[in-house]
């Protein structure tokens, strides 16, 4: 954690959760907790987007729960898909995938570790 990550946060988290099919309020509340935990971290630019969760009405489907997130973290779009047998498993899987995708975006945004110029083998000027 660097000094810029300490203190009050100025990020805005505006993620909508939409449901299709027979999805209960307790499933949506749990999913909202998991999504908020994945995107609520220090040092992120403003986050907004939506999560869509769907339960198939056919009983013969092996994995009836499906979810998709389209979340914009700063200028980067994070898209995550998952299919599971239960709503809790779906929320947990979306949380894991979303958290790792947000971590990749945050690592790419962090410019503290970058060099000032690219190395010679990537188009930079050769050192003399």
Describe the protein:
It comes from Streptomyces dubilierae. Residues 108-128 are annotated as: Disordered. This is HPF/RaiA family ribosome-associated protein. This protein has 128 residues and is of the alpha+beta class. 30% of the residues lie in helices and 27% in strands. It has a four-stranded mixed beta sheet, with helices on one face. Helix 1 (25-39) runs parallel beside helix 2 (87-109). The longest helix has 23 residues, at 87-109. It is elongated, with a radius of gyration of 19 Å.
Helix content: 25-40%
The amount of beta strand, in percent, is 25-35%
Total helical segments: 2
Question: What order do the strands of the largest sheet run in, or round the barrel if closed?
Answer: 1-2-3-4
Q: What average pLDDT do the residues reach? A: 82
The ordered H/E elements are EHEEEH
Given as residue ranges, the uncertain stretches (5+ residues, pLDDT < 50) are 1-12
Distance between the termini: 36 Å
Please identify the structural class as seen in this structure: alpha+beta
- Major beta-sheet overview: 4 strands, mixed
Output the radius of gyration. Answer: 19 Å
The count of DSSP E runs of length 2 or more, i.e. the number of strands, is 4
Outline, from the CA principal axes? elongated
Organism: Streptomyces dubilierae
Protein name: HPF/RaiA family ribosome-associated protein
List keywords for this structure.
128 residues; alpha+beta; 4-stranded mixed β-sheet; 2 helices; 4 strands
Write the layout of secondary structure elements.
Elements: E1 13-20, H1 25-39, E2 47-55, E3 65-73, E4 76-84, H2 87-109
Parallel strand pairs: 1-2
Antiparallel strand pairs: 2-3, 3-4
Helix pairs in contact: 1-2
Protein name: HPF/RaiA family ribosome-associated protein
Organism: Streptomyces dubilierae
